[in-house]
Amino acid sequence: MEAQAVEREGGMNGLEKLVLREGGWSAEVYLYGGHVTSWKSSQGEELLFLSSKALFEPPKAIRGGIPICFPQFSNLGSQQGHGFARNRLWALDAHPQLDPPPNATAAFVDLILSPSPSPSHDDFKAYPHSFEYRLRVQLGPAGLLTLTSRVRNTNSDGKPFSFTFAYHTYFSVSDISEVRVEGLETLDYLDNLQDRSRFTEQGDAITFEGELDRIYLEAPRKIAILDHEKNRTFLVVKDGLPDAVVWNPWDKKAKAMSDFGDEEYKHMVCVEAAAIEDPVTLKPTEEWTGRLQLSLVPNTHVGGSLDVPNAL
Q: Count of domains in the chain?
């Protein structure tokens, strides 16, 4: 099902994408990975980071944008790193079951990912469960970008399953050394650079002077990313996702990634809405919903409340 303001187009390397338009804003979604690769303002400025070396070549995941990490976050466990949702071909959902968008002018598209029915498939071997994963990507007034994921357990054998999850969002920033992430101060976090040892955030904001890779626990619903050079703030609003990941690879790791430019770490930051520490567990017929909303406001409009409706 497609809204009137959605166009199907050919993308990189022949992969199909959908372009959403609303009020001069736009967003692009690839069927490969259910992957949002672009979110542009009404002035045509790209707000998501996409590496110049990103490979649009299955089965490699696309480097940048908003990859979906499901049914596993990170490289821990028996599944492939960050799960298989980001490197599988999704389909248009002919019978979407998510609620309609709250604003009639919003452009949206509904996608669905189903597991491989073959017991011999690598995905099924690593994750032998039946599920329905429905994704709605919606572009609303003032460029409000909303991703809504709904996962349902459709196992016929009566077995529950568990998963971890993240919207692995790459934001485009002017200079990482001038960026502050606010809303996570005083929280406990797991440091992925120290075998997930647990620490408590001491600063009044997160700033960047080197590689950083942390999972913040019981994070608030609203997080702000302040880009001082561009005098703008990204607001991240999350529902059903208790954790938040903050990541920048810095120079050494950037050079080690073949699909990432050596100096591109200076112009990106990942702030991810996630469910990691406590996996989501679903019994048969149960379902889970996780929602991410992204908006952009001038720094002067943020204040201390991080209230999206008032900021917009």
A: 1
